[in-house]
Amino acid sequence: MTYCFYAGICLCLIIFQTTIIPYISIFASCYDLLSMFIIYLALYRPARESIPVILFFGLVMDNISGGPFCFYIMSYFWLFLWIKAAIKLLYINNRFFLLFIVASGVLMENLILFGVAVILETDSQFSEAFSIRTVSVQVLWAILTGPFFLMFFSKMHNGWNKFKGLIAGDNGQ
Amino acid sequence: MFPKKNVVIVGILFLVVINIIILFVSNRRQFSLYGAERIGISIVAPFQNIVTHSICFVRDMWRHYFFLVSAAKEAENLRRALSCAIEKNNRCVEIELSNLRLRNLLNFRKSIANQIVAAEVIGKDPALWFKTIIIDKGRADGVKKSFPVVVAEGIAGQVIDVSNHYSKVLLIIDRNSAVDALVQGNRARGVVTGESTGRCLFKYVLRKHDLSVGGAVVTSGLDGVFPKGLRIGRISGVIKRNSGMFQKITVTPYVDFEKLEEVLVILNSPKHEFVSKQ
Prior knowledge:
heterodimer; A: about 170 residues; mainly alpha; 6 helices; globular; B: about 280 residues; Thrombin, subunit H; 6-stranded antiparallel beta barrel
């Protein structure tokens, strides 16, 4: 049941990102919304439950994107590992921690992309000025909106758990 | 037996090496994942289709219905006759624009004399760095991998993945795209590749060719994907360095990729089978 919830959220994020965001010019340089959900999973959910979701939706993103195959699976996986490690090192209930985590997550995904581009390609590199500007805007967007996304996911999950509890109660009676 | 820190470091290094190997292997186009590369399109594309059509429906409702209602209210306040004229005029402009667009597409369809299928763009690439689109035509409509995708203004890209009813198209502005091209005026040859800024680079053009800004660049047909003579873009910058064999040329595509809504897939483009020598 929980996986259905995760699948629904991920699918909504992907659809929103690929069909609605392109029509809104203010979000032209928006970050990968699914990375926020990966951050949420890493922060609040156990690894055993999260890794299948990360692998499956990494594969889906690899399928619909023009990037090198396995790029999303890897970047989500490393993002997940990084957040898990950061939780152990830093104090989680600090508000600034969330800002730092979302900003570093988006930055990390972009750095992995550049790393992959360097590893796989020799002649076609990203334009430096364009890349710096785009990544900066993405990080800024992440700082502004990321914590709200995390709060939204958390609320949704609580709602889902209550809904599950209601169904279980009905079945019990 | 070993300190925990060392085990963690070795583990991370091992993962990095595994990652690099997987990337190298999966990046080779010959490598097949037995359909795994199409799972995502099959799952996501139907929803993209529904959402895109819903957006279009709402947008059309807004444009054609609500706009007219507000115009009518305004007209009641002014003069009924004038409002009717404005309303009619607006409708005519809309029809004229769509007529022009469709006529353009139809004329282009006739002019390329190929078997083609029209498709609608239902989704764009989730990453900013890659330029691909999802269209609502797939294997069931006769679309296959590496088929060229064009619009009236020029070439848009080529099909890189096909599922039953949907396909993924690599746009010419993507960094991984390469199109063999000619300058229409002096027939200088080169390869048009995408750039992350939404423009293209015209690579491998010899320094001996005199090129000027504004010159049209067309497909050469030598890449085995695009038919010869289709428009790509116009030259927007020429840099001739003192050394080196080639000059640096920037090309601005004729196609506005931000406003790409409908495309045509050429089904019977020239095919070249490349057989490796044993």
